[in-house]
Each structure stands twice: as C-alpha cells, then as structure tokens.
C-alpha cells in the first residue's frame, strides 16, 4: 500500500513491512500501523517520541517497555513480536489489536456495572500475569485498555512499567521520578514513594468507578456518588470500589485473586460480559480504515453518528408511514377498482396495522432497563421484519402487475421502485439501526424510570 498519510515524525523504514497509517501518539512514542508482508498480518510499530529521541533516559525507558512486554505472554496483554533499532530510532513491533479503547467506549456514556465488572476481572488477570513476571504497570487508565473482537480486554502501554525486586515476599520498589497519569495515580505513586501491585489496583478502581458512572470520582465521595447513582449499584459493589480506591494501600484488596473473588461474589457478576463487540463498535462509531473494511463497518460509521436513529425510525413508521401506506393502498384501489386494487388495499392495511401495533409497543417500553428492553425488542423484531417483508412483496407484485397489464404503468413503476427501496432499507439499514440502539441499551445503565436506589439509605445519608 502506498504511504498516503503524513507520518507523526521519525517513522522508520522497515524491511519486510509496509506502512499503512498513523495510529496515534502517546506519552512515550508514536504508534503506526504496518503490514508484515512475510506473515501477512497487521502489526503496530511503536517508536520513541520524536522530541525524546536522543535522550538517554527516555531511550532506556522505551527499551524497558519492550522488555517488560516481552516478558509477559497473556491473552489480556498486547504481545511484542520484535524489538529493533534502525536509523538510530528505537522501535518495537507488537500485536495490532483492532478494537476501541475503554476511553472511546466511555465517550458514548457510562458502561454500567455488568460491563465494568467484566472489564475489571479481565484486566486483573492481565496485571496478575505481569506481576508474576516481575512487572507492574503504573499507568492503568481507560486509554490503555482496549477491547478486541473476542471481548477480551487488552492492556497496552507498559512504558511506565518497572521490574519488581524479587528479594522479598512483598516486593516493592523505589519510586524515584514520578511517572504516570495524575488522575489515575495512587497517593503513594503521586508522592514518588514506594509502589507495588496495589498502586495498579488503585488505578483500576478509579477506572472501575468511571466505567460505571461515566466520570472519575471526586476525592472522598466514592461511596456517596455510587449510592446516589440512578443505576442502583449494589452495596457490595460500592464497598469494593471504595476499597480499591482507598488512600491506604492496606485497605485495598490484597491481591488480584482477592479482587476477583470479591467481584465474583457481587450480585451483578452473573450478567457481566453480557455484551458483544458489534454493539460496542456501533456505540463508539469505531471502525478501521483497513482496506478490507466490510460494508457493515462502513455503514456503522454512517449510522453510528446519531444515538436515536432506531427510535426515530419507529416513530416515523408509526405516525408518518402508516397513514402514507394506507393512502397508497387507497390510490391503488382507485386506480384498479377490480379485485387487485381492493386486495392490495386490505393487504397493506393489515400489514401496517400489525407492524404499527408492534412498533408502538416497543416505543412504550423505552423506559425499561437495558437488558429487559433488548430482550423484548429481540422477541418482537422478527415479527415486524417478517410483516415488512410481506408488505414489500405485495407492493412489488402489485406494481409489476400494473406494468405488465398496461394499466397505470407509471404508477406501477412507482410501486415497484418503492418496493425495491424498502427492500434495500430492510436488508442493509434496519439491522444496523437496531445494532446501534442495542449498543446504547446494553452499554448504558438503566434509569429512565427514576426508580429508587435500594443502596441509598432513607434521608439520603451516606453509607458508612
């Protein structure tokens, strides 16, 4: 592929790799998408930030990142394939993960408790695998957590990772200079003190809260904010997030195994992982620029620009299309008052009566919880689509008969054109409108009904 984009700077020429596009710029380096021609796969290539090239410390940190990543082979951590220095530029070739970051997902709204629990569980698995190889992350945040097509959380950017001393039973290390993202740093990390895996648990707790609520917590108000939230997180969940974000490391879960045990005991755990990547891609508007990008993803980019397209489609069908279709049936009846016109009129009326009733029902349940609403829509939609398909067939057949019978040929052509347009919408657009809507229902917590939060005490008092 030709080099069609302007590089972020200092992009190396790699033998056997074809440059595709820029992926972005991080605190430590720029990332580019290449294609490994020998193995026929896409790879991500990270190079030292152009402004840092030549600085001894930054190059050493970059090399440390490569070695840290190479130490860990786990499904929840992005793999490193190769490390090299070319033209005095340090770079390493790593696995390319096609999927949105958690930060991109949260731009569409909070993920809710079930999604957050699954994300934390998987992230803890990856962090535990890294810790077993003597590595802690120190920069856990939504931008460093990707979700791939198999719903796996993939931890990225170990640029701030340090090897843990193996000399003690509870390994810690000296902080030295403070690195990381301030909003997600543990208090001990922000002070430049000793840090261990508990600092990653703290950062993960901040991410946990943000995924549920949609924003980072205010200092000292984790319990109060969660207890007041309309999604109604359970009391054990509130207490777990509060413990993970405790200023004192000794009050946090002692290990990743302990953290997962507490996650699995939560009432919300049984529904964790109840999402699919197609809905997440729709919610984030995420799609690749890969030349093999499918028609479905291209449609998602267009459809995904508005949250309410599915609801708008239902409203238009009920209040606009229903009377228009009846009018069309009446015109057919008037144009051909014989049996054909009358049959078409009653067939259109029957089909529209059925679909309008079902669509009105779906609009009436718009205030229900996301999973319940999704279940109801998935139960009713096949009936709507079946009747819509029958309607398009009836209209198309009527148009065809009018044309071949040379009776109102122009009107017959119009009917056939409407039938074809309806089929195009039926096959290409309607499924993606529904995917977009389901994404919002599944990724955002329920709460339109304004129900009472069972975990908030009477009088609005704060939980202890």
Structure characterization notes:
The protein has 464 residues and is an alpha+beta fold. 49% of the residues lie in helices and 11% in strands. It is built from 14 helices and 9 strands. The strands form 3 sheets. A 5-stranded antiparallel sheet has the order 1-2-3-5-4, with helices on one face. The protein is elongated and about 90 Å long. It starts with 16 loop residues before the first strand and ends in a 21-residue tail after the last helix.
Task: Give the topology.
Blueprint (H helix, E strand, L loop, with lengths): L16 E9 L3 E8 L4 E8 L7 H16 L8 E7 L2 E7 L6 H6 L5 H20 L2 E2 L8 E3 L5 E3 L6 E2 L23 H4 L6 H17 L8 H7 L6 H10 L11 H9 L12 H8 L10 H9 L5 H27 L3 H26 L5 H35 L4 H35 L21
Antiparallel strand pairs: 1-2, 2-3, 3-5, 4-5, 6-9, 7-8
Helix pairs in contact: 3-5, 3-8, 5-7, 6-7, 9-14, 10-14, 11-12, 11-14, 12-13, 13-14
Key features?
five-stranded antiparallel β-sheet, two-stranded antiparallel sheet, 14 helices, 9 strands
């Amino acid at each position: 592929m030709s080099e069609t984009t302007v590089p972020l700077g200092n992009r190396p020429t790699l033998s056997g790799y074809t440059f595709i596009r820029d992926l972005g710029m991080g605190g430590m380096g720029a990332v580019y998408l290449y294609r490994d021609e020998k193995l026929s796969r896409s790879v991500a290539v990270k190079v030292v930030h152009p402004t840092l090239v030549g600085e001894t410390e930054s190059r050493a940190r970059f090399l440390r990142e490569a070695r840290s990543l190479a130490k860990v082979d786990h499904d929840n951590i992005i793999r490193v394939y190769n490390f090299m220095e070319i033209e005095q530029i340090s770079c390493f070739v790593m696995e390319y993960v096609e999927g949105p970051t958690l930060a991109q997902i949260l731009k569409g709204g909070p993920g809710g408790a079930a999604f957050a629990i699954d994300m934390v569980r998987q992230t803890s698995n990856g962090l535990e695998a890294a810790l077993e190889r003597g590595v802690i992350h120190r920069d856990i945040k939504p931008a460093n957590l990707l979700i791939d097509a198999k719903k796996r959380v993939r931890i990225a950017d170990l640029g701030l990772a340090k090897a843990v001393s193996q000399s003690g039973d509870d390994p810690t290390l000296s902080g030295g200079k403070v690195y990381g993202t301030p909003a997600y740093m543990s208090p001990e990390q922000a002070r430049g003190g000793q840090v261990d895996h508990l600092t990653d648990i703290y950062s993960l707790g901040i991410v946990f809260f943000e995924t549920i609520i949609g924003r980072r917590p205010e200092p000292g108000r984790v319990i109060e904010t969660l207890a007041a939230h309309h999604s109604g997180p359970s009391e054990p969940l509130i207490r777990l997030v509060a413990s993970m974000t405790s200023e004192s490391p000794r009050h946090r879960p002692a290990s990743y195994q302990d953290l997962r045990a507490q996650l699995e005991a939560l009432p919300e755990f049984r529904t964790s992982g109840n999402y699919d990547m197609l809905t997440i891609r729709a919610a984030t508007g995420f799609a690749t620029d890969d030349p093999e990008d499918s028609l479905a993803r291209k449609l998602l980019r267009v459809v995904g620009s508005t949250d309410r397209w599915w609801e708008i489609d239902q409203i238009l069908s009920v209040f606009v299309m229903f009377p228009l279709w009846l009018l069309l049936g009446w015109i057919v009846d008037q144009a051909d008052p014989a049996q054909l016109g009358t049959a078409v009129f009653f067939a259109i009326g029957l089909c529209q009566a059925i679909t309008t009733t079902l669509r009105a029902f779906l609009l009436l349940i718009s205030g229900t919880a996301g999973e319940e609403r999704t279940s109801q829509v998935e139960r009713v939609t096949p009936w709507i689509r079946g009747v819509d398909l029958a309607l398009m067939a009836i209209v198309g057949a009527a148009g065809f008969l009018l044309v071949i019978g040379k009776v109102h040929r122009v009107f017959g052509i119009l009917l056939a054109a409407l039938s074809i347009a309806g089929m195009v919408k039926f096959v290409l657009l309607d499924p993606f409108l529904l995917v977009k809507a389901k994404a919002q229902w599944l990724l955002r917590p329920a709460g339109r009904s304004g129900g009472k939060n069972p975990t908030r005490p009477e009088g609005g008092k704060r939980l202890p």
